[in-house]
Each structure stands twice: as structure tokens, then as C-alpha cells.
């Protein structure tokens, strides 16, 4: 039996996966991940580094890795980040050590990221499992964005206008999961099935970062 | 949105799949399928044509399509069979109409077949989903074969000797599922997950037969 075959054939555990969950703003990426945590999925959720100040109630290393702007720039220079972005002077990025540690521990890694970020990850780690979380319709997405009241109506429309471009990135993804309103567990179940199936591949994906 | 993208993106049902479940003799293919039926999986199970006489308790069109040897040879000549084999003068084969009808109805088709037969299906329908059901060990397989008491000890050893060749066919398969003794539902759940995941592919498989 060749060594690249699935290790489950030799009674060994399957290789850990890097699972990228992406999709338009407001589609419910956070809700899906929160529900997966609630259900006790044995995954490592990637904690993003952030240069903005810690807010009351937020836990360093859980919600974000809170770092200073100086430290963040150092991380960029040292190539410590898998992906990063600056929005209005605030830095956000994914530390590579987060993913390396998690994968070395044998656990699957789940990474939630916007569609642009997913494209970057695709270039860096094409063998990751790319899941596009899609809304059932634009109307449903508008409703959800308005409901969360963190964006102005103009900003909501701006985000909706981006969806067509985001859908155009679907070819970068392996799977598409529709997150219907009030059917969160269906989407979560579908993601669970995808992860299960990926672990049963005859030839597992090989992640190197 | 391109038409070849998953129809779920347009609120339509996913395309039906052709799922081939194969594996060594005695690995538990029948048990897995029986359990899937019990659980009410909404699949079309392919009924094989068979030239041997109907036994008491067997239902024509359910257990097998019972046909005469003459009719079977006619089916071969008319290219009505996806795959067939003759063993000791007894014909067995898969009628194409079974699969066409089932797929036209929008249901997934599940086809249980030995590893040689799966290789034939792979040539005819490479876009089918190929699942290899594997034993946890040769000892477990030997135990199962002896337990069912339909083969002599010599025949059991002959079948075990075939397993290495069968495992060598793994590259023809997409997925491998271990059917551990007393953990049938785990294998069934894994197959369910695979089918679910396949329905979420951004680019669905396109079966033509």
C-alpha cells in the first residue's frame, strides 16, 4: 500500500484538514462557526490577530490576538502572517503559527475569511478545503445585514453590490453551502458532512504552509 | 452564473448522483445497503438482472430481475447491460434502464458491485462517486466470511487472497470507508456524509450513460 493513500487504511487517524469557510458579508459565517463551537466540533478555530484595542468582554487569544500596530507591522515584515489587510488604519491578519500549531496537533483547522482573503489562501494553500457559504437570495442577505444594525443602509447596499463579484469567485471553491434563514443547523450539518467526506478520500489532500 | 455551477445556487435541487459501493467479498456491502434502506435513505437501489431461478421468498424486481438465460443473452446482444458477468453458467448484470430511469426521476442511484465490476463502471461512467468499503483488517474479514457460512474454508482463503489485488484498485475510487465489525452505522453515516458533500460541490459531477 502506497504511503500517500489515506492512513485510515492502516488503522491510523485521517490527516487533519485546513477548512476555509468564506462567503459574502452577512451570510452567517460567524453564526455557523458559533454553532459549530456550541456543538463541540473538535476543531481548531483560527484566532485572527488584530491591531485595534481590546474591547470590554473580549478575551485576548480567544476573540482575537490583540497586538499593537508596531507588533503587527513586525509580523508583516517577518512573514509571520498567512494573510492580512489594513482597513482604516486597523490591521487584521492570520498568524501562520496558529495554523501550524493546530495542524501539528492533529486537529482540523477552520478558518473564517472574506472572499478576497480566501483567494489569497487558495494561492498559498490550494489543497485546503474551500467552502463558500451562500445566501438563499439577495433579499435574504439584505434582511440579515439590516437586522444586525452594524452597517448603515447605504453600506448594506454597497455590500450587496459586492455579492456578484464574490459569486464570480466560486471557481476557487470546492463546495457551496446555502445558509437559509432559520435553517442554520442544515448548513452546519452540510459542513460537517463535507469535512467527514474529505477525511474519507482515497488520496487525502496534503497541506503545506 | 454559469449553467454548469451547482443548481442549488439557483434554488434548484442538486443533480442526482450515481454512487458505486464496492469492496472485497464479505466486507459488508449488503449489510450497509440493507441498513441504508432501513433508515429510509431516499435512493434508488439498482436491481441486478439474474438468470438463475427465483428462490422462495425472493421478489422479482426487488431482489433481482429474474430473466431466462435466453433473455439475458439477448440483453447482452442489445447492449442493454451496463456490466455483466457469467459465473458457472449463471448470468448476472446491471440493466442500463434501471439507472437511466432512476436518474431521470431525480433520485440518486446506488449500485453495489464487486471490485472488478466497479472497474468496468469506472470506464463507462467515470463521473460516478466510487466508494471502496474496506475491512478493518484481514482477520476481521476472515471472521465475517466464516460467520456467514456460505463459503467453504478453502473458498474463504481464496477470497482473502484476492484482497491485496482488490486494494490495488483503490486508485479507481474516490473514497474509502472502513466497515469495522459492530460499527455498521459508522460506515453508513460516512457514506451518507460523502453523498451529502458530493451534492455540495461547486461543479457537480455530470453523469452520462
From TrEMBL, chains A, B:
Keywords for the protein's UniProt record, in alphabetical order: ATP-binding, Cytoplasm, Kinase, Nucleotide-binding, Transferase
| Localization terms from the record | Cytoplasm
So what EC number does this one have? 2.7.4.8
Does the record's keyword annotation contain Transmembrane helix?
no
Q: Does the keyword Nucleotide-binding apply?
A: yes
**Pfam families assigned:** Guanylate_kin
| A molecular function (GO) term | GMP kinase activity
Q: Which reaction does it catalyse?
A: GMP + ATP = GDP + ADP
* Taxonomic superkingdom: Bacteria
Predominant localisation class: cytoplasm
**A Gene Ontology CC term for this entry?**
cytosol
Q: What does this protein do?
A: Essential for recycling GMP and indirectly, cGMP.
Similarity annotation: Belongs to the guanylate kinase family.
Protein's name in the database: Guanylate kinase
Q: What is the lineage of its organism?
A: Bacteria, Bacillati, Chloroflexota, Chloroflexia, Chloroflexales
